[in-house]
Amino acid sequence: TPTPLTLLGLGAMGTALAGAWLAAGHPLTVWNRTAARAEGLAARGAAVAATAAEAVAANRLVVVCLLDDASVPAALDGVDLTGKDLVNLVTSTPAQARARAAWAEERGARYLDGGIMAVPPMIGVPATGAYVFYSGSSELFEEHGATLAVPAGTRYVGADAGYAALHDVALLSGMYGMFAGIAHAFALVRGEDVAPSELAPLLGGWLAAMSGSVARTAEQLESGDYTQGVVSNLAMQVAGRQTLLSTAEEQGVSAELLEPYFRLMERRLEIGGGEEDLTGVVDLLRR
Ligand code: NDP
């Protein structure tokens, strides 16, 4: 029989999670600071608790999906967490997650931190590939893994409670670098006789083809040999960057998104990385 659980937080993400558990037949108790947001879920069979304390008391498994780390103690300070299995899906930093794990353990709970790699419409739709990184108590994850797998896939990445956040933020950071490149590419053709919708499939296809660099970078970092399998060496790429900068200038486009990366490439070249791939930039970023 489906495990009963409690969910605190019925924002966009919490509501999507609640819907998935209800659809799968899990008895669900919900609480939200603004009570009106629970009405739709009550109509679908959720039990609505009047207070966070009441919601926590209802079940051993308690999932938290509030705005940010500060909202967790705001909702739960003073609530008895003894013997609870607390799963915190709030997006946080690794240090915040570790501190929150210690906070929960001091209060007698087992703790699992989660980082959601999905937007709300992907929740409960396995075909989207949505998943959640989890880290912290492996016992909790083993015991409740099947319940946690209802709204999205699960990936346990270690006993260090900060590792879910670390993985989450690593992926999001990579994504923003890609967004920066996309913005620059569209800016270059803006005002020209090239429709954004013409460029889009070409740019999307090119980025997909270039995503192979992720695996090559990993291999080079692990071997320590940044020339391994190099396709376009750094010396050539540093020379070639001028074409990109000059084209931006010609098109009246600011190169501010590209320049910081090019500066790191130049620094690596200066210290002798000319025959390497771009992997040496990773080392320059570590403080
Ligand atoms: P929303 O802004 O839609 O909802 C925020 C929720 O937090 C509401 O339930 C709100 O209650 C509650 N809340 C805020 N402050 C407090 C407080 N001090 N005390 C009690 N409750 C509080 O956010 P989402 O649902 O979109 O996001 C929730 C978490 O999920 C965030 O950490 C977010 O980073 C993460 N996430 C969201 C994604 C998304 O695309 N939406 C994607 C991946 C992760 P009230 O209704 O009373 O305001």
UniProtKB/TrEMBL annotation:
Keyword Chaperone annotated: no
Chain ranges of the NADPH-dependent reductive aminase-like C-terminal domain: 160-287
InterPro entries: 6-PGluconate_DH-like_C_sf (IPR008927), 6PGD_dom2 (IPR013328), 6PGDH_NADP-bd (IPR006115), HIBADH-related (IPR015815), HIBADH-related_NP60_sf (IPR051265), NAD(P)-bd_dom_sf (IPR036291), RedAm-like_C (IPR048666)
Occurrences of domain 6-phosphogluconate dehydrogenase NADP-binding (ranges): 6-118
Transmembrane segments: none
Pfam families on file: NAD_binding_2, RedAm-like_C
Top-rank lineage group of the source organism: Bacteria
Membership in a protein family: Belongs to the HIBADH-related family.
Official protein name in the record: NAD(P)-dependent oxidoreductase
Annotated organism of origin: Kitasatospora xanthocidica
Taxonomic path: Bacteria, Bacillati, Actinomycetota, Actinomycetes, Kitasatosporales
